[in-house]
Write a structure and sequence with these properties.
The complex is a heterotrimer of chains A (about 90), B (about 700) and C (about 160). Helix content of chain A is about 30%, strand content about 25%. Chain A is of the alpha+beta class and about 90 residues long. Chain A has one domain. Chain A has a three-stranded mixed beta sheet with strand order 1-2-3, with no helix packed on it. A two-stranded antiparallel ribbon of chain A has the order 4-5. Chain C is globular. Chain C starts with a helix and ends with a helix. The chains are: A alpha+beta (about 90), B alpha+beta (about 700), C alpha+beta (about 160). Chains A and B meet through helix 1, helix 2, strand 4 and strand 5 of A and helix 1, helix 2, helix 8 and strand 2 of B.
């Protein structure tokens, strides 16, 4: 997890602990962060990451999460994964 | 290269291949635009390309391909003929795809001029076509708005159900023989993580075997961050579309720890006409009760079996049996080599725990491989039993007897090569059971205090290394006295034998015994049963009959697990090892001197429970050079043969084991006394005796 | 040109010794050569049928070539080998005293077999080749097979049946 100005960069393969850490970090700062970038260097390890991102987006629609908007990832382990949410 | 880069490289390579193929297909299609199979092929390629492009952020390619896909989808669904100028557009589009791909790969910002032009034309064409279909107010501006979102592989306004349906269709077209298509809905509750269940885990497990897997996570109900709990599942519904060789049972097994209402597995039937892609037949499988004892009422049998057979479309792959045999042989070699290592003195002398553990692991793995290879030859007897339902119905109609068929153990597996040879004997036995085993009519049954419907039970099960297939009826049963009387009349027996019940019942299968005239007065069990007996014996099996007069008869076929393997008793004679099939062995013992009798001119006999059994010295039969010993110094192995019991005299019993039967080659196949050979654990060969052929020789010797 | 090819036709033969005599078998009939190994006796077969061997999981009959050709038995030594011959998918092993080499023999060096002078029934010899100073007798394995499989064993069987009656 890395914060650079108002861009928060996280890794896709965060473990559950890291996701919780991320959640803890962003909860109080949600209004100050403009962009959440997901580095796709690895494997999605928990779907919680998806729901957390979706929840963030829902809470603050102007938050930019390009990864979430993609609505699809392709992985050698999981095949093609789509997610469906209201934007 | 990072993992991601590796994956990307693979996908880029794949995309390259797809584009190459598109290039060829589109030209072929231009020549023959009525070939909708080819159009489907092109569509699939474009669809996959779309997925790849979006997944790897090739947004410009993704957008183009996305619209192109929609146009193709329109034509393949409507099957309307393609106008010539549009054909040209398609060919041009593939060229654009090629160029855009290069731009994406080299990260060139400037797109070819043809990109926008071609894309516009495609969009216009689509709008035109869609406009005809749906009386819509879809304006140009709305379409542009949509473009933004649709860059990402998902169509705005497209309901998730539609996307899933589309995915199912795509997979339906991708499927080849041996693959099953499932749609799996997971509806896990909020606390599922606490129970240790996680969607991705299931996807991963399914993905291991899958040809293709696509999943849809619905997070529309996700709560805002003040109510969000990261340890709670936010996905109300996850749908997985998977194309896999796994059988329905295998798939169910993956989800077996979930509650019944948390998952739904739908096996998508193969559509009869793949081009009419909108029709997908969904058969909710888990609704079907899985009864162990399928009781089938004969009159409405067709209806029931029709619905159940459609369920049994297991994924299969056809393999040349020759290849299987080769695999089988190789595994045999592996087992021998493994045994050699395990038994090697020098290796055993090494006192190293890691070595002995490795050898142990090796032997376990070898055993597992052997079992699995063996299981490749096995198929459920279900289909054969299905056929029998028909036989029961027909026979029931013909004889006018109401019959209740009870089928048990139809999942029992049996060697494929054996199954084909089982049908005819089974048909024969079942007909006999209904025609002659059951009472003539309901009145006769009523007098015997039985229900008016007769019942026939067809059963398959494993019993101590063999497979038993039995046919039981609750009919008249066999009258022992009459059988004996008839057998004496016909000269099958002398009458002074002391026969056990099963030996008496066995008489009805003797060739001389079973003639047409005997049917009616002896419950008619004899008709053609000698034929049945011969065919079962060819499979290295045997038949046992059990009957109680007035209560019914059970005829059991006891078969080896596979044709290739028998359970053998290893015996030694003059330092050579021979194998006697355990199935024919009645008992083995060292006789007391008192029970061995020498009958002048007839040879040696052992008296056993009032029966005189001829002793056959294996060393004599085979002219083996060995020290002559007395029967009470050796071992007698009493075996059942076609012509009654014989006692085979051997030096020693060595052991009992499962052996793989091998032929001795054409040049030795004519040796009647020997049915084949087997390779023992130490690599030595032991010959398998054909006990039935030991008989005539004795008679010669003692004649 | 075609004539040249015919004349230059050379075939390769595996040569081996039985006693002092050198024999050859066309190389395309030979599956492999293995060292002498344990042979399991098969009862009720002619003496030249030494038995069966376990060749990596396959059971293959083995012929004692010396006995087959009427020579006397000789104990196996370090040179004794089994030549596995494959004719129409049937494998049979031939025990020989010593395997010599693979030699190319020009078809022009082949001649008709003599009618006598060898231990072997000349039926099984299709050609005699002159290789340097040695004479190599080329065996017709197919004929040998036919003889052993169909004639010889059938006769034995026949004999048993008639004896039995």
């Amino acid at each position: 997890m890395e914060i650079n100005g108002d861009v928060l960069t996280i890794d896709i393969d965060m473990s559950m602990e890291e996701i919780l850490e991320f959640e803890e970090f962003i909860r109080p700062r949600i209004d100050y962060i403009e962009v959440v970038e997901v580095e796709e260097n690895g494997l999605l390890r928990s779907p919680t990451l998806l729901s957390l991102l979706a929840s963030l987006k829902r809470t603050r629609p102007e938050l930019q999460i390009p990864f979430l908007d993609k609505k699809v990832i392709s992985s050698p382990i999981y095949g093609i994964v789509h997610w469906i949410y209201h934007d | 290269m990072t993992k991601q880069e590796q994956v990307k490289a693979i996908f880029i390579e794949e995309a390259g291949e797809i584009i190459e193929k598109l290039d060829i297909d589109i030209i072929r299609f231009e020549e023959n635009s009525a070939d909708f199979n080819l159009l489907n092929e092109i569509f699939r390629g474009v669809h996959t390309l779309k997925g790849n492009a979006n997944a790897f952020g090739f947004i410009r390619l993704g957008e183009f391909v996305h619209h192109f896909e929609d146009v193709l989808d329109h034509y393949r669904n409507t099957q309307e003929s393609i106008e010539e100028h549009n054909l040209e557009l398609f060919v041009g589009s593939v060229d654009v795809i090629k160029e855009v791909m290069t731009c994406e790969l080299d990260a060139i910002d400037q797109l070819p001029a043809s990109y926008n032009e071609c894309l516009e034309r495609i969009k216009n064409l689509l709008a035109l076509k869609k406009g005809k279909e749906i009386a819509s107010v879809q304006t140009q501006s709305a379409a542009t708005l949509n473009d933004l979102a649709s860059e990402f592989g998902f169509e705005v306004g497209e309901q998730p159900e539609e996307s899933i349906e589309k995915s199912v269709q795509i997979h339906q077209e991708m499927r080849t023989d041996g693959l099953n298509l499932y749609k799996i809905d997971l509806m896990l509750d909020t606390d599922c993580y606490k129970r240790g269940f996680e969607h991705l885990l299931f996807i991963k497990i399914l993905g291991e075997k899958a040809q293709s897997i696509e999943s849809f996570f619905d997070i529309r109900d996700v709560k805002t961050i003040d109510q969000f709990k990261s340890d709670e599942n936010a996905f109300t519904k996850v749908t997985i579309v998977v194309l896999t060789p796994l059988s329905n049972d295998d798939v169910h097994e993956i989800f077996e720890f979930l509650l019944d209402d948390e998952y739904k597995i739908t096996l998508i039937e193969k559509s009869v006409e793949p081009t009419s892609s909108n029709v997908v037949v969904n058969v909710p499988l888990h609704v079907e009760p899985k009864s162990k004892n399928a009781i089938v009422n004969v009159p409405d049998l067709d209806v029931k079996s029709a619905s159940s057979t459609s369920m049994t479309s297991k994924s299969t792959i056809r393999i040349d049996t020759f290849k299987l045999d080769e695999l089988f042989d190789s595994v045999g070699e592996l087992v021998i080599a493994q045994n050699f290592i395990a038994q090697n003195e020098k290796i055993r002398a090494i006192e190293d725990e890691s070595i002995s553990r490795t050898i142990e692991t090796l032997s376990k793995i070898t055993k597992r491989i052997q079992d699995r290879v063996m299981s490749l030859r096995m198929v459920a007897i279900k289909d054969t039993f299905e056929k029998m339902k028909r036989v029961v119905r027909d026979t029931s109609k013909k004889t006018g007897k109401e019959v209740h068929l009870i089928v048990q153990g139809e999942d029992t597996e049996i060697d494929k090569t054996m199954i084909d040879s089982l049908s005819d004997p089974l048909i024969h036995i079942i007909r006999n059971a209904i025609d002659h085993g059951l009472e003539a009519d309901a009145d006769e049954r009523a007098r015997a205090g039985k229900s008016s419907d007769g019942s026939v039970t067809l059963k398959a099960f494993h019993k101590s290394g063999s497979i038993v297939i039995s046919v039981s009826d609750d009919g008249r049963g066999i009258n022992k006295e009459k059988v004996l009387q008839k057998a004496i009349e016909r000269g099958v027996i002398n009458g002074d034998e002391n026969l056990t019940d099963s030996q008496i019942f066995g008489l009805i299968m003797q060739p001389g015994f079973s003639t047409a005239e005997t049917i009616s007065d002896l419950s008619g069990r004899g008709v053609g049963l000698d034929v049945v007996k011969t065919s079962i014996e060819k499979l290295r099996g045997k038949i046992e009959i059990d009957s109680k007069e007035g209560e019914g008869t059970t005829l059991s076929m006891i078969l080896p697990l596979t044709l290739a393997i028998i359970d053998g008793m290893l015996v030694s004679v003059a330092d050579d090892i021979y194998i006697i099939p355990t199935l024919s062995v009645v008992e083995s013992f060292r006789p007391d001197e008192e029970i061995v009798h020498i009958v002048k001119g007839k040879g040696e006999f052992v008296s056993l429970r009032g029966q005189y059994i001829p002793i056959i010295r294996l060393s004599d039969v085979f002219d083996l050079q060995t020290k002559r010993i007395e029967p009470w110094e050796g071992i007698l192995v009493c075996v059942e043969t076609e012509a009654g019991r014989i006692a085979v005299m051997v030096d020693e019993l060595v052991g009992r084991q499962q052996v793989v039967i091998k032929t001795l080659g054409k040049s030795l196949a004519k040796l009647k006394e020997i049915s084949g050979g087997a390779i023992l654990g130490n690599g030595d060969i032991a010959l398998i005796l054909n006990v039935d052929e030991l008989r005539p020789l004795i008679e010669n010797v003692h004649a | 040109m075609g004539e040249n090819i015919v004349q230059a036709k050379r075939e390769r033969y595996l040569t081996f010794y039985l006693g002092d005599e050198q024999y050859g078998i066309a190389i395309d009939k030979i599956k492999e050569i293995i060292a002498m190994m344990k042979v399991t006796n098969v009862p009720k077969t002619p003496s030249f049928m030494r038995g069966v061997i376990n060749l990596r999981g396959s059971i293959i009959p083995v012929v004692d070539t010396r006995l087959r050709f009427g020579m006397e038995h000789r104990e196996a030594d370090m040179h004794t080998a089994i030549i596995i011959v494959d004719v129409e998918k049937i494998n049979i092993g031939f025990i020989v005293d010593r395997v010599e080499e693979v030699s190319s023999i020009d078809s022009s060096n082949l001649s008709e077999p003599p009618k006598f002078g060898s231990h072997v029934d000349t039926d099984f010899i299709c050609n005699v080749a002159q290789v340097e100073d040695d004479v190599v007798m080329i065996l017709d394995v197919l004929k040998l097979f036919e003889a052993d499989e169909l004639v010889s064993l059938e006769q034995i069987q026949q004999k048993q049946i008639t004896e039995g009656e």
